[in-house]
Please model this.
Amino acid sequence: MDRQAVEDQKDLAVGIPDQPGKEAEQVLDRATTKASSAGVECSRMHMIASAPWEAILKAAKKSKCDAIVMASHGRSGLSAMLLGSETQKVLTHSKLPVLVVR
Model:
């Protein structure tokens, strides 16, 4: 199996009902409505990956983004270390600039 086929296979959600896709659409519907009412242009995309940070980076690459903007939950100390941080993983692996908003 070639490398691309392996990557494509990793992204398949085998045996998982479509609920995550429906939930993503609902979240995106609300965000699009808020952006529109504020006069902000936006485009929509959702992806499924083995980890959220991977999906964020894939979406940014696919959309040819110039930068990534993410929120920080503001955790500090031991709880931040134990819980891990998707934002930290994006910061570590991204080749794009990442703006973290607290």
About this structure: Strands lie at 68-71, 98-101.
